[in-house]
Specification:
alpha/beta; 29 helices
Length: 681
């Protein structure tokens, strides 16, 4: 395809992206603004204009589906040989190819799930975790490895990140350490190890690095706001000292920080590459002005670094219906109301596959599955097992069936709760993770028993099991397209004509265990993601109580303040408190991460000891080489400059510098203070 033809049909900002074919490029792309279109046309234009050979391009993203979509578009644009892969796929391909040369011997075995190995080492540590706790342990190990946290540093890092786990942090650290030892002994590779070893191979072996870097000279990274430190480590190893890299992302769609993802690489790209081209895509082609207006309103009161880089979307579609805000007395009434609204849309011609019901946690799906089944509306569940196919629910149903003929004088609700207690149903929910999801699933069964007992005070255990079996059979209907039921996390990257965002109540959005300001802001961004999935019709609803007849004490999500009719804009309650940092030169409040680290505005005058800064950088280089990590993993440039400006004389003064946490203070504090004192570390 001729190069100029590739540029046809692009808007001015997309055209700017496509023409920026050399050097570092940062594309800040809002929801629905055509980012995939822009970057695939950029790649195709670079190939067609002779800037780069298509086989020397590596485009990386986070899901196999997204990589496949990118390859399909590139084929249509005349660049079929461009490599578009996930981080793990690209790294594994390189590691497997060079393994005989670099390591030799039998290649390691790749494991897709850590559960079996984690269960084994947990037992060796004297623990007997259930399946939910095993998933939590595996998740914590993945988070630790993704954030480059070693077992001995896990407790401090978990506390700093406000991680909530179903096991004490010390036990998690013990299991993590034992897991890594077992993995090495048995020559096993998990997905994080693939990335670690690939980065190490490129850093340690010059010949391999030269071959890989001669093969791939041109990089594109999609969804860059979701990159974690381990993935960034691999990207840095691929790049070497080059800068032909284009990153694309939206800080306002950072919703996976619990896995180690951080938008700081995206928001700090211009600091890392001062000569980078930065293009903002804000023309929203997906949603009506009414939906776009609500999306902008949800983010209007956002806080933090991501909020500082937020994009004000500009709708490009014709006008549509206003978003609907609906309040219900209880959750069953909300589900029934949503089902009626969906039935009306289908009757008016909207295909069922173009309608979605989105919720915060998977346990909310059961009520909507039943409401749609009762209304004879077909549906498909995305991102989770069907409610009655979840392991804990299958186990619970089996147990309840076995107890239906037993003689008991206890009330139905008491009997059900007693039977579910050994499986994880307690009076108070766990703090988070898989244990929390398991508890919520079992609590939904207990709630069903309570609802039956309220409606039929004489209901027996046999009656309850009969009701369960009827519901199970309803969910085993033949597979067909229908209304999508999905959690907000699993809806990322998708869109529908009509979206019902349900359970928009304080305590669910934001979730009750979001306590720190950063966690609350992530919940706001999750709400924004949900809103921006809708093309035309959007309904937001909440229930004042959980059960019929319950206390109507719930309140709509504070994220809707100022966005829904008859509400004034309010400043959301701050949870956990965030330390305000003011410029030590002019006194202005500092927002940007780099400024907070320096302790001053970047344009405020400041003097620093240039010789000390050079000594600090030389020391950092030696430490990084010894530990085989990039220099910024030890300390960033901004942190070292802050040290050179403030020249701390003791550990307390050093700890006050942003970027020097407890772990780094313990690991490097003595050496840094020695350098500040003019001594050798």
């Amino acid at each position: 395809m001729h190069a100029d033809r590739i540029l046809e049909g692009l808007d001015p900002e997309q055209l700017e992206v496509a023409r920026a074919v050399r050097g570092p490029v940062c594309v800040l792309a809002g929801a629905g603004t055509g980012k995939t279109r822009a970057i695939t046309h950029r790649i195709a234009y670079a190939v067609a204009s002779g800037v780069v050979n298509e086989q020397q391009i590596l485009a990386v993203t986070f899901t196999t589906r997204a990589a496949g979509e990118m390859r399909g578009r590139l084929r249509q644009l005349g660049a079929p040989r461009v490599q578009a892969r996930t981080f793990h796929s690209a790294a594994l391909r390189q590691l497997s190819y060079f393994w005989p040369q670099v390591v030799g011997g039998p290649p390691p075995t790749l494991i897709e799930s850590k559960l079996q190995a984690v269960a084994e080492v947990a037992r060796g540590c004297g623990l007997t975790p259930g399946r939910g706790e095993l998933r939590d342990l595996a998740g914590e190990i993945e988070w630790a490895k993704s954030t480059q946290t070693r077992p001995e540093d896990y407790e401090a890092a978990a506390a700093k990140a406000a991680r909530e786990t179903s096991n004490p942090p010390r036990d998690v650290a013990r299991v993590y350490d034992a897991y890594e030892e077992l993995r090495r002994e048995r020559n096993l590779l998990d997905f994080e190890s693939v990335l670690e070893l690939t980065a190490a191979m490129l850093v340690d072996n010059r010949q391999v690095a030269e071959r890989v870097r001669s093969q791939y000279r041109y990089f594109v990274v999609d969804e860059y706001q979701d990159v974690n430190p381990l993935q960034q480590l691999v990207l840095d190893a691929w790049l070497g000292d080059r800068d032909d890299v284009c990153v694309v992302g939206d800080p306002s769609q950072t919703i996976y920080s619990f896995t180690g993802a951080t938008a700081s690489y995206l928001t700090g790209f211009s600091a890392a590459f001062p000569h980078a081209s930065v293009v903002r895509l804000v023309r929203d082609y997906r949603s009506t002005p009414q939906v776009v207006g609500l999306a902008n309103a949800v983010l209007a009161q956002a806080k933090g670094d991501a909020a500082r880089h937020r994009l004000e979307l500009q709708a490009q579609r014709p006008t549509g219906p206003d978003p609907v805000f609906q309040e219900y007395d209880d959750e069953p009434a909300e589900a029934a109301g949503v089902a009626r609204g969906i039935a009306a849309l289908i009757a008016s011609g909207t295909p069922a596959r173009e309608i979605a019901v989105l919720y915060r946690v998977n346990a909310q799906s059961a009520t909507y599955e039943q409401a749609l089944a009762d209304a004879e509306i077909p549906y498909v569940l995305r991102g989770a097992a069907r409610f009655f196919e979840r392991p804990e629910i299958r186990q619970a149903v089996h147990t309840l069936r076995g107890a239906r003929l037993g003689a008991t004088t206890d009330p139905l609700v008491t009997t059900v709760r007693h039977l579910l207690a050994p499986m994880g149903l307690s009076d108070t929910p766990p703090s988070g993770g898989q244990a929390r999801e398991r508890w919520e699933s079992l609590a939904a069964l207990a709630q069903l028993a309570e609802d039956m007992a309220t409606a039929r005070p004489d209901a027996t255990m046999a009656d309850f099991v009969q009701e369960l079996e009827a519901r199970v059979s309803t969910e085993h209907a033949p597979e067909f397209e229908g209304v999508t039921l999905a959690s907000l996390h699993s809806a990322k990257g998708l869109e529908w004509d009509a979206v019902f965002l349900v359970g928009v109540v304080d305590g669910t959005l934001p979730i009750v265990h979001a306590k720190t300001p950063d966690q609350v802001e992530e919940e706001r961004r999750l709400t924004y993601v949900g809103v921006t999935r809708a093309r035309e019709y959007l309904s937001l609803s909440w229930a004042l109580s959980r059960s019929p007849g319950g206390r109507r004490s719930r309140k709509p999500s504070p994220f809707l303040d100022g966005a829904r009719p008859n509400t004034a804009k309010k400043t959301p309650e701050r949870r956990g408190g965030a330390r305000q940092v003011d410029c030590r030169v002019c006194g202005a409040r500092l927002i940007a991460a780099a400024e907070r680290k320096l302790g001053r505005c970047t344009d405020c005058p400041s003097s620093y000891d240039e010789a000390l800064l050079e000594r600090l950088k030389a020391w950092r280089r030696d430490v990084a080489e010894e530990q085989k990590v990039p220099a910024y993993v030890v300390f960033t440039d901004a942190t070292l400059q802050a040290v050179a400006e403030q020249v701390p004389t003791d550990a307390r003064g050093l700890a006050r510098i942003s970027g020097v946490g407890s772990v780094k203070l313990e690991r490097y504090g003595e050496a840094v203070l020695a350098l500040c004192a003019g001594e050798s570390p």
